[in-house]
Design goal:
39% of the residues lie in helices and 23% in strands. It is an alpha/beta fold. The chain is globular. The two termini are 32 Å apart. Bound molecules: adenosine-5'-diphosphate (ADP) and magnesium ion (MG).
């Protein structure tokens, strides 16, 4: 299937008279890695919270695969395949990496914790969990207590637990935030890899990441859509350059 997987129409969110998201019309193409960027306070997180149903829009519509999901609950859209990474990144720090992925898988099966499951179904879960760990390059960490892993690896685990939910559309809120150079590179490659056969919408500050892997970029400013296009298009847009004037202008340029 091609075409638009996610669409918002006139999406608006007001907080006590303050408009955090203002008449946003967003179209995410199936198969794309699509970035939502914008200066601090632009409304990116609010937008994400609307898409994942953590917030109810003041007005406007959200369509997933053409279906109106404006009134859907978070669990409903998760079952439809819209998965936000941090939802499940509520990983259990004192369980092993493998156990965390297994819990993600059990959640997906709707069985939740089930200590008296048969050996056979447990080993099937283990196999699938190991497969997912291999996909995010965490095989060697399977038996590591999660809290003991380096930060970048934890973010990779987060991606594995997201994959466990079989996402059709993955929503990543700043997946490389707070990472050093090497981790940024590794997670960027990972996102690129797991994007195969899926669609990814991500909020990302790092313009190197955005320019490196994103097919399309939407720029928000003060709640409204300022510009859209490829990295080359938006980074040469005078309005975007102005919006990023000051601290972040250098970042935007530095990514070329
Ligand atoms: N729950 C809330 N109540 C009031 N104002 C909010 C709330 N959430 C966000 N805002 C405001 O909405 C604007 C957009 O915030 P946010 O979506 O977090 O921006 P971004 O993620 O782009 O930095 C900010 O001015 C913020 O202060
Ligand atoms: Mg934010």
């Amino acid at each position: 299937m091609s075409g638009v997987i996610l669409e918002t129409k006139h999406l608006t969110k007001e907080f006590k008279g303050f408009t955090a998201v203002n008449d946003v019309n967003l179209k995410v193409q199936r198969g794309h890695i699509h970035a939502l960027i914008g200066p601090n306070g632009a409304g990116k997180t609010t937008c994400f919270n609307l898409l994942t149903k953590f917030l109810v829009p003041t007005s406007g519509q959200i369509l997933f695969n053409g279906k109106d999901i404006t009134a859907a609950k978070p669990a409903q859209i998760a079952r439809m395949g819209v998965i936000r990474s941090f939802q499940i990144s509520a990983v259990f720090p004192h369980l092993t990496v493998l156990q965390n992925v297994r819990i993600g898988l059990q959640r997906q099966l709707g069985t939740s914790f089930n200590f008296w499951q048969s050996e056979r179904s447990l080993s099937k879960l283990n196999d699938r969990a190991m497969q997912l760990l291999a996909e995010v390059d965490l095989t060697e960490f399977a038996d590591t207590i999660t809290v003991d892993m380096p930060y970048g690896r934890k973010r990779a685990l987060e991606i594995a637990t997201t994959l466990a939910m079989e996402p059709e559309l993955m929503l990543l809120d700043e997946p490389t935030q707070g990472m050093g150079h090497e981790d940024v590179h590794r997670v960027t490659e990972l996102i690129k890899k797991v994007s195969a056969g899926r669609t990814i919408l991500m909020v990302e500050h790092n313009m190197k990441v955005v320019s490196g892997i994103c097919d399309k970029i939407s720029v928000l400013q003060r709640g409204a859509m300022l510009a859209e296009g490829t990295y080359a298009e938006v980074s040469s847009n005078p309005q975007v350059m102005e919006a990023y004037m000051g601290t972040e202008a250098a970042v935007l340029e530095g990514a070329h």
